[in-house]
Amino acid sequence: MSAILEGKRVLITHVSGFMGPTLVDVFNQHQARVYESDHAFATYEETQAVVDAAIEDLGAIDVLVANLSVPAPSTMANRVSEEEWREMFAAIVDPLPRLAKAILPHMIRNKKGKILVMGSAAALRGINRTTTYSAARGAQLAYVQSLGIEVARHNIQVNAIAQNFVDNPTYFPEEVKANPQFQERLKREVPLGRLVKAEEDAELAAYLCSDNADCFVGQVFPLSGGWAIR
Fold first, then answer.
1. Angular region, 43: left φ>0, alpha ψ -120 to 50, beta rest
2. What gap in Å lies between CA 151 and CA 135, rounded to an integer?
3. What is the mean pLDDT of residues 25-34?
């Protein structure tokens, strides 16, 4: 394996869930120096404290990987509560501007940086009874596109992976994968015919966080085994 992240100082959020464990493993294999966080980033003060601690530990932050997830409700739109709507945005949208506010001054001073959001293809293709989750994931991608354009002049690249049908314990636990109905759904709906391996996803993330990917600005990369392609 080539060490495409050698020496890169990386902050990865929510390392215990979604793509976190595999991202940490693959980034370490590429010889990045990884600062792991499991904070909720519920306030700006909490977020700034995590960023400050990461900078103190690593000396600087070259890369932020915003790995944010929440279980997706399956509520009919006419039964969605105010609480559910706000819970989705609080978990996977609200941390993004807090993280950006905390880390961008540091990256702008250093005249370089990368921010990668681990998003969802639920924002690219409608899914029945997931209005709250899909809306929040869509907000993530819209934020990435606008922020990417804004900070490109500072040599900071902001992009996102919009994924679905990628093997991870948050959305595809073992009991789901073992279900014959789910296995049949994979064959019917996903051209690849299987889940994308977590390592395949993390390798794409590593590439997008490397110097090889300096040309991408505010882009969304679908990764869904062909599911998101119409």
1. beta
2. 24
3. 98
- Tell which phi-psi region holds residue 138, choosing left (phi > 0), alpha (psi between -120 and 50) or beta: alpha
pTM: 0.97
Q: Which two tokens stand for residue 128?
A: 């029945």
Say whether 33 sits in a helix, a strand or coil. Answer: strand
**Rounded Cα–Cα distance for residues 71 and 195 (Å):** 18
Residue 59 region by backbone torsions, left for phi larger than 0, else alpha for psi between -120 and 50, else beta = left
Give the pLDDT confidence of 52-84 residue by residue, as tens digits: 999 999 999 999 999 999 999 999 999 999 999
Contact between 33 and 10 under an 8 Å Cβ cutoff? The reply is: yes
Q: Parallel, antiparallel, or unpaired: how do β-strands 156-163 and 63-67 relate?
A: unpaired
Which residues fall within 8 angstroms of residue 174, CB to CB, at 6 or more apart?
A: none
For residue 227, the SS3 value is coil
Tokens representing 87?
Answer: 């819970």
DSSP count for the chain of H helices, then E strands: 8, 6
**Which residues, other chains included, contact 181 with Cβ-Cβ below 8 Å and sequence gap of 6+?**
none
Please list, in sequence order, all residues whose beta carbon lies within 8 angstroms of the beta carbon of residue 5, skipping any fewer than 6 positions away.
27, 30, 31, 32, 63, 206, 209, 210
For helices 44-58 and 95-110, give the axis angle rounded to 10 degrees. 40
* 118: nearest Cα among 188, 166, 62, 61: 166
